[in-house]
Amino acid sequence: MKNCIYILLIGMMIGSMIVCTVEDIRKKQIHMAAAEVFITASMMAAWYEQREWTYMASGAVLGLLFLLISICTHERIGKGDGFLILGTGVYMGFWASFMIVFAAMLLVCIYGLFVIKKKRGWKYEIPFAPFLAASYIMAVILQV
Fold first, then answer.
1. What is the pLDDT of residues 89-135, one digit of tens each?
2. How many other C-beta atoms can be found within 10 angstroms of the C-beta atom of residue 8?
3. Of the N and C termini of the chain, which has fewer Cβ atoms inside 10 Å?
């Protein structure tokens, strides 16, 4: 029974991340309901694994930093992305979350340089959630 709950939580996390990704691609925004499901499932999975509160809090710091950047830049980086990073940090911890964000930024850079520059120009807004989701799902699969 305990493993079923854990698998359900992981499924909720990945499913809500996919929903956020689709929304970000289609509408260039992430609805808070999907982000809240992601954060809640991440917290519950971390509690289920009996992770310390310091581990979860240190992971959330990176997401809070992105939320602060979002506010300071008038949402050049969306708040939804910050909330997804916050949920990632709560479950994965600071360093794993840092590596996930780093990998996502690397993927965005490659995509931006080779695809967007040639087709749409430099002012095109790139949704970040698909790249964050790709790195996050790989990290969860490798961790589980």
1. 999 999 999 999 999 999 998 888 887 666 666 667 788 999 999 99
2. 13
3. N
pTM over 0.85? The answer is: yes
With contact defined as beta carbons under 8 Å apart, do 92 and 55 qualify? no
Q: Which amino acid is at 40?
A: T
CA 144 and chain centroid, separation:
17
Q: Which DSSP string do the residues of 69-112 spell out, in sequence order? A: HHHHTTSSS-HHHHHHHHHHHHHH-HHHHHHHHHHHHHHHHHHI
Q: Taken in order 9, 65, 70, 125, is the CA torsion positive or negative?
A: negative
Side-chain half-sphere CA neighbours of 89 within 13 A: 24
> 107, 96, 16: which is closest to 59 by C-alpha?
96
